Amino acid sequence: MPDFATRPFATRLVETADAVEHLLDRLLSPDPGEGEIARPARLLAAMRHAALGGGKRLRPSLLVETAALFGRAGDGVLRAAAAVECLHCYSLVHDDLPAMDDDDLRRGRPTVHKAFDEATAILAGDALQTLAFDVLADPLTDGDPAIRATLVLGLARASGIGGMAGGQMLDLDAERDPPDEAGIRRLQAMKTGALIRFSCEAGAILGRADPAALAAIRRYGEIIGLAFQLADDLLDATATTEAMGKATAKDAARGKGTLVALHGISATQKALGELIAEAEAVLKPFGDRSATLIEAARFVAARQK
Question: What residue ranges are annotated as transmembrane (predicted)?
Answer without folding.
Answer: none
